[in-house]
Design brief:
CATH topology of the largest domain: Aspartate Aminotransferase, domain 2
Number of helices: 12
CATH superfamily of the largest domain: Type I PLP-dependent aspartate aminotransferase-like (Major domain)
Helix content: 25-40%
Oligomer: single chain
Order of helices and strands: HHEHEHEHEHEEEEEHEEHHEHEHEH
Number of strands: 14
Number of domains: 2
Shape: globular
Strand order of the largest sheet: 1-9-8-5-4-2-3
Strand content: 5-15%
Distance between the termini: 29 Å
Largest sheet: 7 strands, mixed
Radius of gyration: 21 Å
CATH architecture of the largest domain: 3-Layer(aba) Sandwich
């Protein structure tokens, strides 16, 4: 059985709408978003979908994360706490701003940041917390929000894998007990009673439109914020610090992270399909969860709010590499660990950063993250997921998992 892949047309929702969007831009003669309309329309549509004041388009998800670090405004040598289970695009922007990544351990159930581990690492140089909603599962963002507020830190949400991930409504502050020494969280649903979405609780949320994400324009990113000043700084940085109102005047340091009109037009066509993409993934994921509910030795992901970029399985007793190999041999698109090693163990930390300089990492050695390291090495299996999966695909995955796991 062939499984649709996001690397091919059969596993994407690209079609006539995207072709028409690209043709519209090409025939207009204006492919640059400074003078075009598509990027500004995309920003307005995403801001409305997410219920935020500002959505700022840029050239990639990594660029979006760089803008979020710019908004946090670390001084050289300041620290940003983040997760070791993520793409390097989460961490590269920290180094690009001469700040230092500090890796906190994760919840072994889903690989998302453990707020207690984050709390233990906050120090005088900490400037921000950068949370990742891993695989589309909601992180414990209200606890991280409360922690950030208590220490005067910025909170950044990396939602590259978490389009339309829904967050649980937080308990009323008076009803929410402090956990692990953390203050009670505050928060509220978006206006009109619609679900709160990942990316709307932090000071900045970051979205990706790269090839492998829920929707795509090849590469592209969007940052979300309700903060007018942060939005101003991010727009300036994404356009080389160019104050367009003042003429050819450069107000601050910046890079060229502009999204093109072609990217934006394709992204707008894709955005209209996003609810259907996430809905289809949720329907088939629910079928697999039901099929595996009685299979011993497997910890299933919590479905609440999940956007199912990937379908993760945790084997608390270990054996993930063996299960992933068995599934792959049977034609199931599965692999163990997600990363070759968690980022706190990546070889990059022994390499120079700029030229031959190690700045800002002189004497830097990332701390151990035992839960993350065990997930990657022993307990985590991820299965590619796709809006084109059918009941037959789900049945094949469930059958091979049940066949491959040892009987108790």
């Amino acid at each position: 059985m062939k499984f649709p892949s996001m690397a091919e047309a059969a596993g994407r929702t690209l079609g006539d709408e995207e072709v028409a969007a690209a043709e519209r831009v090409i025939r207009s003669g204006m492919l640059n978003s400074v003078w075009g309309t598509e990027a500004r329309l995309l920003e307005a549509e995403i801001a409305r979908m997410y219920g935020v004041r500002h959505a700022i388009s840029c050239s990639s998800g990594t660029a979006a994360l760089h803008l979020s670090v710019v908004a946090a405004a670390p001084d050289p040598g300041d620290e940003i706490i983040t997760t070791p289970i993520t793409d390097f695009g989460t961490v590269a922007p920290i180094l690009a701003q001469n700040a230092v990544p500090v890796f906190a351990d994760v919840d072994p159930a889903d690989g998302n940041l453990d707020p207690a581990a984050v709390a233990s690492l906050i120090g005088p140089r900490t400037r921000a917390i950068m949370a990742v909603h891993l695989f589309g599962a909601p992180a414990r963002i209200d606890e991280l929000r409360a922690l950030a507020d208590a220490h005067g830190l910025a909170l950044i949400e990396d939602c590259a894998q978490a389009w339309l991930t829904e967050l649980p409504d937080p308990p009323a502050p008076e009803d929410q007990p402090a956990a692990d020494g953390l203050p009670a969280a505050d928060g509220a649903p978006l206006a009109g009673g619609t679900p709160r979405l990942a990316g709307t609780v932090g000071d900045v949320g970051c979205l990706s439109l790269q090839q492998w994400k829920h929707i795509t324009c090849g590469d592209g990113g969007v940052v979300l914020t309700d903060d007018d000043e942060r939005a101003r700084r991010m727009r300036l940085f994404a356009d080389k610090g160019w104050d367009r109102v003042a003429g050819r005047s450069h107000a601050s340091f910046g890079l060229n992270y502009r999204m093109t009109e072609l990217q934006a037009a394709v992204a707008r066509a894709q955005l209209a399909k996003l609810p259907g993409v996430v809905g289809a993934r949720r329907r088939t994921a629910a079928l697999l969860l039901d099929a595996l509910k009685d299979v011993p030795g497997v910890r299933l992901p919590r479905p609440d709010g999940h956007a199912w970029w990937l379908f993760p399985l945790v084997l608390p007793g270990g054996g993930a590499p063996e299960l992933a190999a068995d599934l792959a041999a049977a034609g199931i698109p599965a692999r163990a660990g997600y990363l070759a090693e968690p980022l706190n163990r990546a070889p990059v930390w022994a390499a120079p950063v700029y030229g031959s300089s190690r700045y800002p990492l002189e004497g830097y050695r990332p701390a151990a993250c035992p839960e993350a390291e065990r997930l990657v090495a022993e307990t985590l299996v991820i299965i590619d997921w796709n809006e084109r999966y059918t009941t037959e695909h789900v049945e094949a995955v469930a059958r091979e998992i049940a066949r491959s796991l040892p009987r108790p």
